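Please study the protein below:
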Amino acid sequence: MYWRWKSRSSRVGRPKLDKEIRDLIRRISDENPLWSVPRLQSELRLLGYEVAESTVDKYRVRNSKPPSQTWKTFLENHAGEIASIDFFTAPTITFRILFCFVVLRHDRRQVVHFNVTASHRLLDGEQMDSSFSGGYRTKVSAAGSGHGLWSRFHRARAGTGHQRGPSRSSQSVATGIGGEADRIIRRECLDHVIVLDQNHL
């Protein structure tokens, strides 16, 4: 009780930050919504204010909305102009590997075009351009970046206003649409059929 009396104080906790610094943190963060907390702290240090990172995080202005749309939102907004392009392989009865080329429309999950070849190098620009004949035009295509098909397709579509969007692991929505079509084709067809040759497939 004696030491509690000796150390009594009307103030509890940390001393409050000056209003000038609090207003400055809010103003800088409001004018630079893309800046992170460490960036704001560094900027304050350049102005001569040593403020802890937790304090900056406490007083900064928080944006209710993200600074830009997510990849999923982009796909939803432009589904009618996006197609997925993908490869999968199928073995024949003589253990020959055939390559299946599939173009899938995003908005209706519809197969726009497919082809079977003995070598993926046989898919030339004319074959790829015919994938989007019949009135369907796409502006962006999402494809896996692991095979050379992608660069050849983009060269074939150059000059038509077409943009490429190779899918990465973070863009799993676009990759998943094409991958799901491959899995359905395997599960509902290829797993129950012994392929004889290219024409049969």
Remarks:
- The radius of gyration is 29 Å.
- The mean pLDDT is 75.
- DSSP finds eight helices and five strands in the chain.
